[in-house]
Structures are given as C-alpha cells and as structure tokens.
Amino acid sequence: MNKNIILCGFMGCGKTTVGENLKKKSGMNLIDTDAYIEKTNNMTVSEIFEKYGEEYFRELEYRACRELSQKRGVIISTGGGALTFERNVKVLKDTGTIVLIDVPLEVLKERLKYDKTRPLLQRPDRDRAMKELYEKRMPLYKKAADIVINGDNSPLQVAISILTATKS
Ligand code: S3P
C-alpha cells in the first residue's frame, strides 16, 4: 500500500509550509484538512467557529479525516487539534504514517505572536492559553505519532528529514 504522510503538530509548527516543501521534493499531492473543510463548506475556519462553535468544527474535521483517509500516497496536513482526537488518529493511521513536527513552545509563541487567523488564539491571555493547550496536547501528539521530527529548523530541512524518515 502506498501510505499517506500525515503531518501533525501544534499551530505554527509549520505543517503547511513543510507540507509544501515535501510536495515539491516528493511529487506527492498535498491536502490540508482546514483547506478541505473550508472548500467543502464554503466558509473559513474562523467563520465556522464564530457561527457554529468549536464542537461543530470538530465534527467537520472528523468527516474530513474520514474522507481523506480514503486516499493513497498523499500528504495530509492536519489542523493543530485534529490528532488530539482518538477517532481522527484511528482513521488516518489506517492508511498513513503520522509524523509529529516537534517545535518548542517558546518558538511557537514567537511565530504566532501576531496571528489573527486562529480562533483559539484570539484572546488577551494568548501566551497562557498556548502553554495550557501545548501541555495538554503534546502527550496526545506523541502518542499518535509514528515518527517525531525536530521542527525547529527550516521548512525545507524539516521536509527532507521527513522524507528520509518515512522512506526507511
Ligand atoms: C486548531 C488549529 C488550526 C485550525 C483551527 C483549530 C487547533 O489549524 O484547525 O483553528 O485546535 O489547534 P493549524 O494548526 O493549521 O493552525
């Protein structure tokens, strides 16, 4: 079976940019779960959160994971919350290798300092919220991951490390 590569990690860890580099290097197609949800629902992630709430978004995310897991030999870049849910891990792992892009919290905080697109970060105590989420999520990501890659590097370098690790 031509396994998918599933990119996992916290918001800002570089799933999208690493995915683009990986696509260039490998020739595999790249699908982003958030972009897929936005396209199939004709709304942005922020609009979905605002209008219907997070729980509804998680249902759409689950559906996206189920549908995308039917593909073969593609790169699937997941939203930062996706692989904290066992049901999503289960369907994606069936046909893919889950790769955690591991980036330290301090680096993520710096990268996301001015972010306006992520609904979970639009709050005055962003740093504290990120720390709490990060501590809660890291163990779940690690449990889900087949491979952990150091993501505190250039997107190209991270992509090369992923290709090497998934080939061996
Ligand atoms: C989320 C991360 C976002 C997006 C949504 C929720 C999360 O994706 O799915 O805002 O729960 O961490 P990115 O990780 O691509 O920012």
Describe the structure.
- The chain is α/β, with parallel strands linked by helices and 168 residues long.
- The protein has a single domain, classed as Rossmann fold, CATH 3.40.50.
- It contains 8 helices and 5 strands, in the order βαβαααβαβααβα.
- It has helices spanning 15-26, 33-41, 45-52, 54-68, 86-95, 105-111, 126-144, 155-167; strands spanning 4-8, 29-32, 74-77, 96-102, 147-150.
- The chain has a 5-stranded parallel β-sheet with strand order 2-3-1-4-5, with helices on both faces.
- The longest helix has 19 residues, at 126-144.
- The protein starts with a strand and ends with a helix.
- It binds shikimate-3-phosphate.
- The site of shikimate-3-phosphate (S3P) has 10 residues, from loops.
Mean pLDDT: 97
Mind telling me the CATH class?
Alpha Beta
Q: What hetero molecules are bound to the protein chains? A: shikimate-3-phosphate
Low-confidence parts lasting 5 or more residues at pLDDT below 50?
A: none
Tell me which oligomeric state these chains represent: single chain
CATH topology: Rossmann fold
Report the biggest beta sheet as strand number plus sense, adding barrel if it closes.
5 strands, parallel
Structure summary, number of beta strands: 5
Describe the global form.
Answer: globular
Helix count, DSSP H or I runs of 4 or more residues? 8
